Amino acid sequence: xxxxxxxxxxxxxxxxxxxxxxxLACVIAGGWLLAMPRRYGPASRPLGIALALTAVWxxxxxxxxxxxxxxxxxxxxxxxAWLFALYRLFxxxxxxxxxxxxxxxxxxxAFVEVLKIGGVMALLRxxxxxxxxxxxxxFVSLGLLVSIGGLVLAHNLYGGASAQxxxxxxxxxxxxALLWGFDxxxxxxxxxxxxxxxxLDGLRGAMGLVFAxxxxxxxxxDSVQIRFRPSHAATFQSLSLLLIGGYLVVLVAIAQWLAFxxxxxxxxxxxxxxxxxxxxxxxxxxxxxxxxxxxxxxTKHLFAHRFDYxxxxxxxxxxxxxxxxxxxxxxxRAIRALADITESPAGLLLTRGEDGLFELAARWQWPTAxxxxxxxxxxxxxxxxxxxxxxxxxxxxxxxxxxxRCPPLPDWLMAEPxxxxxxxxxxxxxxxxxxxxxxxAYTRAxxxxxxxxxxxAGRQLxxxxxxxxxxxxxxxxSRFDDxxxxxxxxxxxxxxxxxxxxxxxxxxxxxxxNPDFRADMLLTLRNSADKLNALLARLxxxxxxxxxxxxxxxxxxxxxRVVQQFAGIHPVLxxxxxxxxxxxxxxxxxxxxxxxxQNAVDASAxxxxxxxxxxxxxxxxxxxxxxxxxxxxxxxxxxxxxxxFDSTKSGGFGIGAYExxxxxxxxxxxxxxxxxxxxxxxxxxxxxxxxxxxxxxxLEHAGKKVA
Length: 707
Known about the structure:
The chain is built from 22 helices and twelve strands. By secondary structure, it is an alpha+beta fold. The termini are far apart. The N terminus is likely disordered.
């Protein structure tokens, strides 16, 4: 018995047990189907008979050997039984009456099996026991034809069925596909190697376990509810393994052909072929574009939906929920969470600034994008809020048919070559942000599924960003509360000094002639003055952040006065000074410019110049303070520069920049800042001209009236 599967050893015994196990499984499954012919209807009895004949074939293979003439005859009979069972399966949904295209294939496959039976009988008459050595290639070729024809029939059985019939036919169709698919692999390897593969000989009978299990599983009452839904990741990995296996098969086939060619250069040709294939693989497989194309193509043809929504949502939540010292900021994580959905390599996040205008809040792996200080105008923001439209920027550039409700995108975004899509982040129908995604390695057209998923993910991100803003506002209110408590201590110190001075004044009326009293009085006055001067030095730069009244102010004159105050202290130059009259308050404007110049001086080297420029256009007057000092990072400007009580100076209150910005806003203007670490900073104050302030005020008043 061990000789049936090769040389002596452990494997022949394992192979025999595998064949016997397959036979036992087919006997049980066939008997169960014959006893309970309900599920498969008219196909139940043929399936039971096919399983019974498969069991007889497996027993013959276990005891007589796979290549024994009796086993070969039973193999042909088994295939004929499965072909008849397949024909009866077509009758489950009535297709047996309209099988004109399929019936010739079925008859042809059956005819090939009959030829195999006739060939075995002819060989037994001429040379009994010589089936394998004499007719090996003939039987292998006929087996290949039967396997290919059987796979075509199994595909038509399932592919042509109705949606309801597929729920029942999928299990027997899968069993038939595995039956003839395994045989196809077996015969291909046998044909290429010129002999029967010993390992597959042993496993061929064990496949009866799989056939029987699938047929019985489909006959269960609850088989319709069973779903096999592999994830996208599992499918891609499985297909990768299949591609690797196919590559190895092709490699073996070509190597065998080169060896069979018998030329003097066969060895060199094999080495050259392997080298070329390896170089091609190293050149192609690392390509992100190729991987993107493969993923898109497989998703398009294998799945009903492009995305595995469960996996996408878990990844989205994991990206947003990252925490710790090494984690990126929430803004960068928000960009990445959306970019992962479309496999975009980079992105930008635009959010509302303190003045309500949209500006760049964060960039992820996109350092070259040139974003202006005001990134979105009011018209674009309003359009996104009304439509919640996910913009396909490539389609807009190419002049494709876009809906009328598509918002008008700014020129800088249309001019950015990597910009691919713009996703609005809406929170209670208010635009809190806009994510611009860069074009992926493999570019594809966005469809409805992309738009729906990006729109939903954008709303979720908007809630995260809004919650973060709310927490920052609460933290800022808490800092203000702390500041008020600190001021209470300052007031307490001032009150103590005032009490000392009041007491000193009353005692002076009584003891002014006493020399010792006069000495103590001078010492007390000196100490009180020192305390007041120290306190004033800390508080002198931080005054009221409200403006009492606005009036025409000459900006060039105020700038000149500030420059004069730094004469002999630090090189501060007024390099351009246009006569410009804005609407503002002289003391507040001078305080703002003085503070910004002082900060520029503090951030610059002793001999580094600080330059002021006063300009004027048709609507606004501008004051620029430029230095070439240490500079600031984008993160510092975004998160710390204008945060009260966050100071980088020892003993500072940390409200100077905040106060300057609020004073400029109170005068109807805005404060802009640009900076690069190691290069310097530029602060720009924009205030309305005095000549246009009245017109602007009347327009605002009219707008409020209409509203």
